[in-house]
Amino acid sequence: MSYDAFAKYYDVLTGNIDYDELAAYYDKLNLRYGGKRGILLDLACGTGSLSVRFAELGYDVIGVDASPEMLDAAMAKEHKGIQYLCQDMTELDMYGTIDTAVCALDSLNHLGSIDDVRAVFEKVALFCDRGAMFLFDVNTPYKHEHILADSTFVYETEDVFCVWENEYLGDGATDIQLDFFERDGDIYRRSSDGFTETAWPREKIEKLLTDAGFEICGVFEYPTENEPSDTGEKLTFAARIKNVRNREI
């Protein structure tokens, strides 16, 4: 999948996200279940906006993303000692262990299959120190079927106009097509990106976590600590490593 064009406009089009609030939310969950402000892996870190907030909270942050374009945008910001690595999260390869892993903003939904989710969970578990926390959010099948569905969304800023078109494929999968129109004097220049997001049932995600060696501390209606509802659009998972694997790092 390509994020070349999306990376350029990502920060503009996600200006509604309160990254300070989001970082505080994950920090609270991390500390609540015995995690610490140590080495934090920001998985699928994108343009680094959340990585920066975690660094400001006192974490030693490693940001990982598969998109060089996203990481270029991250590197252009104030680093605050953050180390950025260009890696596919299904093939995560760290230089040491981590105390906390966070995968925010439904990044796991961008994976191509449930086997890819399994691979990510196993890789994160491999590099978790004893008692490390794994926190992430995912879109629900309900959101894909009833909210994203076959909808079209339009976003407009002073510099760019974006048309977001969805096609629901069934079984939790939604094709997403993004067309960007950037103002250049009196004309607009068009660029496009496309990818597929898939939502999996909560029970499957829980099984993959436990199979990978995690114990589930809580599953919540994002971005709260409330019990999930049947019509919830996104879930937050809080898991702690239970079985530290033998490894050579």
Terminal residue distance: 30 Å
The level of helicity is 25-40%
> What is the residue-mean pLDDT, rounded to a whole number?
93
How many DSSP-defined strands?
11
Sum up the overall morphology in one term: globular
Biggest sheet, strands in spatial order? 3-2-1-4-5-11-10
Structural class: alpha/beta
In terms of quaternary structure, what is this? single chain
Q: List segments where confidence is low: pLDDT < 50 over at least 5 consecutive residues.
A: none
Query: How is the main sheet built?
Result: 7 strands, mixed
Order of helices and strands: HHEHEHEEHEHEEEEHEE
Q: How many H/I helices?
A: 7
Based on CA atoms alone, the radius of gyration comes out at 18 Å
Quick overview of this protein structure:
With 249 residues, the protein is α/β, with parallel strands linked by helices. It is built from 7 helices and 11 strands.
